[in-house]
Amino acid sequence: MDYLKEYRSFVNSHYLSEGIRITIGISLPAILLSYFGYLSEGITMSLGASCVIMVDNAGPIHHRRNAMLICDLAIFVVALVIGLVNHNPVVLGILIFIFCFFFSMIGVFGARASSIGLAALFAMVLNIDANHKESSPFANAVFILSGGLWYTGLSLLLYSFRPFKLVQQALGDCIQATSVFLRIKASFYERQNHFDRNYQLLLEQQTVVHEKQELVRELLFKSRDIAKESTNTGRILVLIFLDTVDLFERVMTSHQDYEMLHQAFDHTDILERFHDLINEMAVELNEIGIAVKSAKSLPPNESLNTKIVELKSYLIEFRDKERTAANVEGFVNLRHIMDNMEDIGDRLITLHAYTTYDSQLSVKPMEAIDFEKFVTHQSTDIKILADNFSLQSNSFRHACRVAIATMVGYVVSKFFAFGHSYWILLTIIVILKPAYSLTKKRNYDRLLGTLAGSFIGLTVLFFTHNKDVIFVFMIIFMIGAYSFMRRQYRLFVLFMTPYILLLFFLLNPHDFRTVITDRVIDTGIGSLIAFLANMFIVPSWEHEQFIDYLMSAIANNTLYFVHVSRAFAGKPVTIQQFKESRKHAFVALANLSDAFNRMLSEPKSRQKNMRETHQMVVLNHMFTSHVATLSSGVEPLAVKFFSADFEPIIDSISGRMSNAQRILQDEPRLKDESSGREKLRILNERLNQIIAIRKSELARGLTDSPTRKDLSELKFITDQFNFISKISGDIEKLSGVFHSKTSS
Fold first, then answer.
1. Quick check: pTM over 0.85?
2. Which of 82, 149, 70 is nearest to 115 (CA)?
3. Could you read off the pLDDT of 183-207 as tens digits, one per residue?
């Protein structure tokens, strides 16, 4: 790992800037009001600000503004109601149950609504043990509201100074995630290869890339000023994103029969050379990502361009030296890989140019695309909430789980009467997630982070009791915690724990040891309750929902294939249709991969049909990859080779995919059209004839001829249709096995 690059990436990311913004937003009210002798009120305002930060996720500014204002109102109401009933444990317990259920249930309206619910529950927990001797419940709620409004104003003000910065940072992250995907693709060319492991890493990283792309889509296409492309910067950012998505698809098009390549060329160094060059491209793409995040110009890497030219020359020499009639097909594949690398190299040059924000580049024409169709719109219809009041709904199950577990935690906290027992409730609320795997990871991370963080906090206090030094360390830990809050939960807890311990030490050094003991014990109790709740209170397992993700992936893959392949039958679709279907196929595949990865973290007893499930994920990934590969040949080859004979082949493949869906839905299959198989056989015979001619030419010493180009182009098309046809058949067959096992 290059730690210098990791450091440069982190300091230019929106995570660090967010951490600094949050630290200022939370600490400033307490610091300023304590100076005037109102420390208690200042801390209450800081608590209000700490609630709103949960809602201030990266996204379009009008979404963030509306969410923060709604959150301000929610925490005011919750704090006021809890303050009024704090003296009555029974009524308080009933309200805790109702609030936990309701604010967990609103997660059906999306991630931002879920954050508002979490913030409201956070306000609820922090006010359970609040002491209102010095101020009334209403005054306390007003101070909490004031803190929330203060942070809302601060966040909106900072955005107005740098409206494009968040987009640049998110776009840079997206480019860097794509570079990791490219690096994993490079690993397939290593001589000692573990294909299953590489495929698993590829699937996991595709999910990451999808999440980054979705965030950038929201920031670009839901932010009105940017979407209108009214400025040079806005247009350049849109162009960078469009080219990055196309680059990602191009990386996916490099999918090959890797086992065949290794069998044919492992005795040479050509695959290792490919591996090294692709890795260098990934490194360069990562550098571009850092440059975009920091808004700095990055000059083209002439050394990389030279290496691409050198490898192309080496491949030609290698081909002339090693090519025989027996391995001519393998060399055709190597030629296609080289073409892909050249194309990626050209795209890197374009991205380099964009980092200059040259106004001449922003006049580049863009296709007439309705970008609104590429973003997900979340409905807020109340009917959605009503429709989810069922045990069939994962959101309803999660809400029940949180409400019951928190009630248990409340009873336990009252029974043991610890001084800071609200940490039990806070631990349960923060840890419990809709998916078992996420809860399990959070549980582990919180326990480990709390123990390690406590050790760090004690170490600081062991070496110094100087309040000024402790305050500096506290601010550092605070920035670290909020910088990792949305990135890595374990590090968030690792920094948050010493920050809280040092804060309590500054506020009340005499009660400090009790604070440490309470935090560790309460965290342990809360983690145990959350774990048991996740296992036994209306649990939700991934295998129950996997079939929905699977059918979505098959349906979107089918549409993507049809939109790409119809060009070869003389019926091309519009750019809008192609890009929409590509986006939906990639998203569905990422969701399928993510669901499978979550299944791997569940108890073995809940991992149903894992062999077939893994095969389904890999087959769908291969299908998408080969369709993406076929799409790269549409523009130069579809016009040259288009024929009505492709129509039955397309119908046959899409029919098998439709049959797979019908099998999973327990519906009768459609009739398989044999004409498609016949047309594919004729296409293969045509290719074999050209291969035979080319082998004859090579046997006569004829190294270059028109046949060579025809062979390369037709083999590319034929191979992809053969691969896609075989995979569609495998998906159809495996659907039968999968359905029979899940039904039994």
1. no
2. 70
3. 998 888 888 767 778 877 887 888 8
Instruction: Round to whole Å and give the CA distance between 112 and 69.
Output: 12
Distance CA 725, CA 653 (A): 6
DSSP code at position 537: S
Q: 262 near 275, Cβ under 8 Å?
A: no
User: What letter does residue 671 receive in the DSSP assignment?
Assistant: P
Rounded to a whole number of angstroms, the distance between the first and last alpha carbons of the chain is 47
Query: For the purposes of burial, counting CB atoms within 10 Å of the CB of 163, is it exposed (0-12), middle (13-18) or buried (19 or more)?
Result: middle
Q: By C-alpha distance, which of 255, 41, 203, 92 is closest to 586? A: 203
* CATH topology (fold) of 542-743: Methane Monooxygenase Hydroxylase; Chain G, domain 1 (1.20.58)
Digit-coded pLDDT (tens) for 43-53: 889 889 989 99
Q: What number is the average pLDDT over the span 241-255?
A: 81
Domain ranges of the chain: 1-169, 233-358, 414-425+433-529, 542-743
**Neighbouring C-beta atoms of residue 28, cutoff 10 Å:** 17
Widest distance between CA atoms in the chain: 101
Cα–Cα distance, 104 to 403 (Å, whole number) = 8
- Alpha helices, DSSP H, located in 129-223: 137-161, 165-187, 195-221
CB 500 within 8 A of CB 50: no
Question: Is 235 within 8 Å of 165 (Cβ atoms)?
Answer: no
Return the structure tokens found at 79.
Answer: 């704090």
Q: What is the pLDDT of residue 279?
A: 92
Distances (CA, A) of 281 to 176, 209, 343, 628, 676: 12, 17, 11, 20, 40
